[in-house]
Amino acid sequence: MTHDSWGNLPAMFFDQAARLGEKPFLWAKREGRYHPTTWAAAAGDVRRIALGLRSLGINHGDRVGLVAENRPEWVIADLAIMSAGAITVPGYATHTVEGHRHVLAHSGACAVIVSKAPSSANVLAATKQVENVHTVIAIEPVVGRTGLVDIRSWEELLARGSYDAGDISQCIAAIEPDDIACLIYTSGAVGVPKGVMTSHRNILANCRGLHAVLETLGLDDQVFLSFLPLSHSYEHTAGMCSRSHSARRSSLPKAPRHWPRTCSKHGPRL
Fold first, then answer.
1. Is-contact 168 14, C-beta < 8 A?
2. How many CB atoms sit inside 10 A of residue 120's CB?
3. DSSP label at 2?
4. Rounded to whole angstroms, how far apart are CA atoms 254 and 28?
5. Residue 244: what pLDDT?
6. Half-sphere exposure (CA, 13 Å, Cβ side) for 121?
7. Model confidence at 130, in pLDDT bands (50, 70, 90)?
8. pLDDT value at residue 243
């Protein structure tokens, strides 16, 4: 499959994963050392999480929030949400309860994937004020339960996907280039955050353009450090671009205390 034949972002990722297999894809620092996740292993987790989401009733066009610091699970969750035919709604881990409430309510998210405290605590508090969120998926354990929201663990979702014999490729094949891939919210520096509707075609166009530049510069097999939060419009797009070739992505183990909060008012354009 060539770059021009990719119709959506999951198709791009799984094609690359099949080609690159056991090569390192994501790196994360744990206990003072960087540990790799291969393309094949990441693809397996993406498939299982996607099937797990489908088993929870999340279908084509549904919105799923994603609030976590930069880590391999962020990338896997993002790709899994899209592979299930749903739409990723990234949120800043530094948002207040009111910030999360606005994004979850405005986007109409039916579920949200969270990481560790304190951001997960703020998301859980926000879900008490949002009727449309029915499920919270916790990458790390959360304390307590809130309201009527169903709390599931990341490991449970992986297990659900392992037991499911379904083929996620049918979901991926149904995704059109102009379908929305993600709703990226602005920082809210002026007024409340605005959701930017970004299609698969938008991001793929940037991937194709950047791939040609990286090849020209001889940077098609390099390690890229993820520094901006992946919920940021530029970093999310850059992350997808790194998945369009053989680059490896290094993920920070902890979010710095102060992220740059400026977010583009407009999504990537063709």
1. no
2. 23
3. -
4. 10
5. 55
6. 4
7. very high
8. 60
What spatial distance separates the first Cα and last Cα of the chain, rounded to whole Å? 22
Please report the pLDDT score of residue 226 as a whole number: 74
Residue 61, token pair as written in the block: 């066009």
Instruction: Yes or no: say if 63 and 97 are a contact pair by the CB < 8 Å rule.
Output: no
Tell me how far apart the alpha carbons of residues 16 and 175 are, in angstroms, rounded to a whole number: 18
pTM: 0.85
CATH architecture for the domain at 3-251: 3-Layer(aba) Sandwich (3.40)
Report, as an integer, the average pLDDT of 207-223.
74
User: What is the sign, positive or negative, of the torsion defined by CA atoms of 236, 14, 35, 52?
Assistant: positive
3-state secondary structure of 125: helix
Please state, in angstroms and rounded to a whole number, the distance separating the CA atoms of residues 39 and 209: 22
59 CB neighbour count, 10 Å cutoff: 13
Q: Are 68 and 120 in contact (CB under 8 A)?
A: no
User: 185-211: string of b/e by CB count within 10 Å (b at 16+)?
Assistant: bbbbeeeebbbbebbbbbbbebbeebb
Cβ-count burial 125-160 (b if 16+ within 10 Å, e if not)? bbbeebeebbbbbbbeebeeeeeebebbebeebbeb
- Note whether 186 and 211 are within 8 A (CB): no
Task: State the pairing for strand pair 24-30/33-38.
Answer: antiparallel
Collapsing DSSP to helix, strand or coil, 108 comes out as coil
Q: Which two tokens stand for residue 159?
A: 């297990």
Nearest to 109 by CA among 83, 81, 142, 80: 81
